[in-house]
Amino acid sequence: MIPLVKVAMPPRERLMPALEQVLYSGFIAEGEHVYRFEKQFAETFQLPFALGLSSGTGALHVSLLLAGVRPDDEVITTSMTAEPTNIVILQCGAVPVFADVDADSGNLSPESVAERITERTKAILVVHYAGFPARMRELREIADRHGIALIEDAAHSLGAQYGGQGIGTIGDYAIFSLQAIKHMTTVDGGILTFKDESQTNAAKQLRWFGLSKGVPRTEVDIVRPGFKYNMNNVTGAIGLAQLEGIGELIRRHIDNGRYFDEHLGRIPGLGITKFDAEARPSYWLYSVLTDDSDAVERRLASVGVSASKLHRPNHLHTVFEPMRRPMPGLETYYRRLTHLPCGWWVTDEDRETIVDALKQG
Asked: What is the pLDDT of residues 334-359, one digit of tens each?
């Protein structure tokens, strides 16, 4: 089967010497490999800076705390995402407020977001679902008008752009996931970036128990408890090796995605994701919409291609039951959704097979 998602690793001859060097260096916890990786990641994706964390979930948790989210605050968010996006809101003691999504993209509807704002709203948490940028111009305007933070969960959208800016540079805070099956992996890991660099020390302390690195432990003073969210040198070494080939890998996702845009959009009965003219997706997954998603999955399985909905809307979990509300756009999107593989492992022949299979109905 052509898998829906797949782990990307650098060539053995590049990765293994780097791993061996760090593993036997005597310095495997947070150190120079992490700091070099942070610097190169920020340069590669034109971020103001990057902080490495143990996971994208940890990075998102820290971003919420830096944004001032406290118990009983509200965070406007999407249910159409992987569960960690909203679990971290609960971990802050805050309340996820689910806004509806656009039925043709799965991304947050700015109109619905605007309707959900109250005096308790502290932040808007936007996911660029499947690598397709959300309507950031409108969401940025809403956040600015109400004086609340805009947080980008860019776990699906490494390398995407909006309005000529890299995804991750439009919100007040942004996170990237380096989990196993994302565009780029460090086995696990995450990146945090934000606009107000005066919060850098606070962010570093939150990722390591509330302590400051580089200060003797007998001299530090914890003023706010933090977490064990720091990245280690082994992960950093993998990240450095990954960055050498990440541009080519993301370009292949984009090339396959644009091919599907062109060819699948012409097939009667199939719809494709719609996005702003200002958006440049990075196509982590490819999404098609049809009135019979089960039939699409069966048709592709018959030619050896995995396809599925992949995620379950978060509000369907019992833990989020008190936050449920009518979301007709999400209901329509999820019913019609099927994700197809479009990553670096999908060859020209594979993508032709996918298109030909769906043309047959």
From this structure: 999 999 999 999 999 999 999 999 99
**Residue 205 and residue 82 share a domain:** yes
pLDDT in tens, 178-217: 999 999 999 999 999 999 999 999 999 999 999 998 888 8
Those residues with Cβ within 8 angstroms of residue 58's Cβ, 6 or more apart along the chain or in another chain: 190, 207, 227, 229
pLDDT of 217 reads 86
Same domain, 219 and 325: no
Q: Which domain does 119 fall in, by range?
A: 12-243
Asked if residue 337 belongs to a domain, the reply is: yes
3 within domain boundaries: no
Contact predicate 38/268, CB 8 Å: no
Tokens for 86?
A: 């909203």
Domain presence at residue 76: yes
Nearest Cα to Cα of residue 312 among 62, 68, 154, 106: 106
Is 272 in the same domain as 351?
yes
Whole-angstrom distance, CA of residue 202 vs CA of residue 198: 8
| 208 lies in some domain | yes
| pLDDT computed for residue 77 by the predictor | 98
The closest of 192, 97, 100 to 153, measured between CA atoms, is 192
Q: Which of 176, 209, 243 is the last residue of a domain?
A: 243
The alpha carbon dihedral of 165, 169, 175, 179 has a sign of positive
| Contacts of 76 by beta carbon, 8 Å cutoff, 6+ apart | 97, 99, 113, 116, 117, 121, 123, 124, 125
H runs (alpha helix) in 125-273 = 136-146, 200-206, 233-243, 246-264
For residue range 123-135, what is the model confidence (pLDDT) as tens digits? 999 999 999 999 9
Rounded-to-integer distance, Cα 305 and Cα 318, Å = 32
The pLDDT value given to residue 213: 87
| Segment 55-66 mean pLDDT | 98
Whether 197 and 256 share a structural domain: no
